[in-house]
Amino acid sequence: MTVELAPASNIALDDPVDDEIASYLNPNEPKSFFLFAGAGSGKTRSLVKALNFIRANCGRELSLHGHRVGVITYTNAACDEINRRIDFHPLFYVATIHSFAWELIKGFHHDIREWLRANLEAEIQQLREEEEKGRAGTKASITRISKIESKGRRLKSIDSIQYFSYSPNGENSEPNSLNHAEVIAICTAFLSHKPLMRWILVGRFPFLLIDESQDTNRHLIDALFIVEKEQSEHFSLGLIGDLMQRIYQDGKERIEDELPDSWGKPSKKLNHRCPKRVVHLINKIREAVDTHTQEPRSDAIEGQVRLFIRKTSTVDRMATEDAIRTQMAGISEDDAWTDRDLCKILTLEHHMSAKRLGFENVFSPLYGIDSWRTGLLDGSLPPLRFFIQSVLPLVQAQAADDKFAVSRLVRQSSPLLTASALEAAADPSVLLKKAQSGVDALMALWDKGEPSCGDVLCCIAENRLYEVPESLQSAYAVLKAQTASSEEDENADPLNDRNSAILSFLKAPFSEIDIYRKYVSGLASFDTHQGVKGLEFQRVMVILDDTEARGFMFGYGKLLGDKQLSATDLKNIEEGKDSSIDRTRRLLYVTCSRAECSLALVIYAENPEAVKAQVLEQGWFSEEEIDIS
């Protein structure tokens, strides 16, 4: 009789990694490190264990010297989760990157003022030079003049500002407010060029741990590298991440290649989330990039993975995907696949979600600007924040006849009802009537049909319901001017890409703002790699569709053998630059690695047989796991 032995448990496989990290967190002999933590590796658990180790072994010593441990995470939700796990202990300062940057610089009002002065003067000078070369009366000229005036007003008032402020979750439209980009830029500049600021950082936070380091602003990471090199005897910089999960373009490429030899480089091997079959697949996906591979837990289920290849000519994609989910219910013996709400449907390219959900007119123009993509995808891009945080709540409150909410929103933000305005008015009730008249005018826009975002902006500005934020002032100037310059002048002096994108976005129906808001908040039926990063779902469907993606950033067909690589792709690969293949592979890795039980990939291809041949050759799928029709 043969007795089969149960496989040995590997649950403690990564315990030595946590012990290694603990050895670096010694105030008397600190050591910086980069922790590789792939999908589902339990990096939050390791981070919390590291923090608890610090508290238990040197927390009292740190507190006596006025030190704290800095922890930078990517989202407020992640901050809340970590704080909850460490019982909100005051030894730790857990914050997003913007909040942490502001924490460092917020007391240096004189230095902030001088940085802003120099920055504004340089920007104004550049705009004046561009105006001299341009043509009067064009949209580009109106935009430049508006920006010169706006920045000039800010420069003129800068000496009267005693204290600067910043809100990580607000619009930051007050005269003394810094915007999100400025906070990062100022912190980066101070750390890079002011030795005192580097000394202050280390004096306050001798340990600084950064989660999702591959997506943290590259300029700030470079500045922190300067601090670490100079203060390595007193400072431990701990970076936690995985380059295969880099999804934002302003993150630092190939961060692991720049690490000094003296750094620790621990690596977690175990995947606690995914079934065995999914772990095998994601190892195959990243095989061409690096040697990092994961092991599934010994007690993990086998799981199911299927690739469904459909023709690009498929007309009703939603019906096709519904039928595929029905197939998955049979394959996995899990009827929940038939309920769309119980499945997580992921797209790699945001244009696909924008088109399917109906906010393409808001999204597409702004997505064309490289440096705006991060803010667009996390909802922090200033032009959109204004509509989401200020305008949309007012419109919704008035539509719901919630007079209390309308009054609160207008009193909170309208320049008509500031304390100084009410105090200066001979009859404050006149201002209240003007504010109500403005709200009525705004809602009257809908009497003529669906207004555009530009219609709403103009109405708000003309009635002074809100101050137009700096990010929209030049666009408003163009809309208000209704320029009639010649086509020849416009062609000779065209709008730059950013201003053109803003004006195009303002043509979008205002109704798309709420759809976009739900999308970036993870409330829509479709989601993307950004929205689900760090999350997990029992049933995952990933949709790959180049025809709906419309972008040059990604190429599913190129990755999976349906299309030839372009000359640009080949050149980027040869020069070691980030290519559409690299980006697509990373996003496919992130989405596939969300699955806890079963995973369905759906690709719409010009040549289904070519896709099948390639994935079989690469060993991603077996013959019986591929469905072509």
From TrEMBL:
InterPro entries: DNA_helicase_UvrD/REP (IPR000212), P-loop_NTPase (IPR027417), UvrD-like_ATP-bd (IPR014016)
An annotated GO BP: recombinational repair
GO molecular function: 3'-5' DNA helicase activity; ATP binding; DNA binding; hydrolase activity
Gene Ontology CC terms, in alphabetical order: cytosol
Binding site for ATP: A37, G38, A39, G40, S41, G42, K43, T44
Keyword Nucleotide-binding in record: yes
Coiled-coil ranges (or none): 110-137
Swiss-Prot/TrEMBL keywords: ATP-binding, Coiled coil, Helicase, Hydrolase, Nucleotide-binding
Domain UvrD-like helicase ATP-binding: 16-288
Pfam families the record matches: UvrD-helicase
Protein's name in the database: DNA helicase-2/ATP-dependent DNA helicase PcrA
Species assigned in the record: Rhodothalassium salexigens DSM 2132
Lineage start: Bacteria, Pseudomonadati, Pseudomonadota, Alphaproteobacteria, Rhodothalassiales
